[in-house]
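Run log, item B.
One chain of 360 residues. Sequence copied directly from the ordering sheet:
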Amino acid sequence: MAWNLFGGKKKNELAETSESDSSNPEDGESDSPAGDGGSSDASPADPTAEKKGFFGRFKQALVKTYSVLNTDVRDLLKNEGRLVDDDFLKELFAILIKTDMGAGPASKIRDEIKSQFRGRKVYMADFIATAKTTIREIMDQPERPIEYAESGPTIVMVCGVNGAGKTTSIAKLTNMFIKDGKKVVLGAGDTFRAAAVEQLNVWANRLGAEIVMGSQGGDPASVSYRAVEAAVKSNADICIVDTAGRLQTQTNLMDQLSKIRNVMQKVVPEAPHEVLLVLDATAGQNAISQAKGFSAAAGCTGIVLAKLDGTAKGGVAIPIRQEFDLPVKYIGLGEKEDDIALFNVDTYVDALFPESFGQE
């Protein structure tokens, strides 16, 4: 199972690091757990050491976003603080927007500062406290792992545009489930892209998952149907179905996602139990338009935010939660199959505004 950010690892320990769709399953990466950043003297079973080590790696994933935000806010407030007037509020808003948190959350933080400190000086500690509280309120959600079906296989449909990190995210989820003792069947439903099918097949062989494939350019719905059918017949615990990743503006893609959902339900009436939308954190605000298109067509239940470690736009998780009321379920923190974690709001906010924030 994925990391529980505040309670150590869940059953069958799984290490995390950082995410990118460029990950090649044939690169011969080590399957051994990555170092957790904690003291070498700490016991691996020590939950405090695990929590601190993972927070350090989460913080590292957000280092580009943190660096931009920290530098700009520090230059704005300086050690002596800054009088809150119209000019200050405009500058603060512009700084917040650079993280791609969006106009809504940036406006809310700015307005909270204005309400509390108008006509007075605001200091770094005041800004940090206000920003953290506001973001927590906007993103308020518990950890939201996959919700398993009451009986039979849990069907998970995964969608997202090409290049978002979809195939690698499926591999990470598969690895997570297998390490938790689950039997997994994959459906290579992105039949329009030969590389996606090939890559998923390599991952399946490497991780020990069954895979159902079709011919290039074949019917994705047919692959999805056969994958769900295979999961039922083999008494699998999980069936993850990949889908085409063409741009969400194409009506035929939206229709295809609806068709896939319908054929799944002929085998398992409740399917899909989860619909995960993989978003590329490096896309920033463009990820919002992706969420709008796919959310409407596929009935998304949650977000997998990939490539968080590769961008200064890590604030994009905030407007996604605010505008769509979709929980960010998992985040990608590296290129290896172990590099996936349950999203936790408190850890995210603390990594964005660590104790060192505002310092040189």
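Observations after the first pass:
- The first strand starts at residue 3 and ends at 4.
- The chain is about 45% helix and 15% strand.
Flagged for discussion on Thursday.
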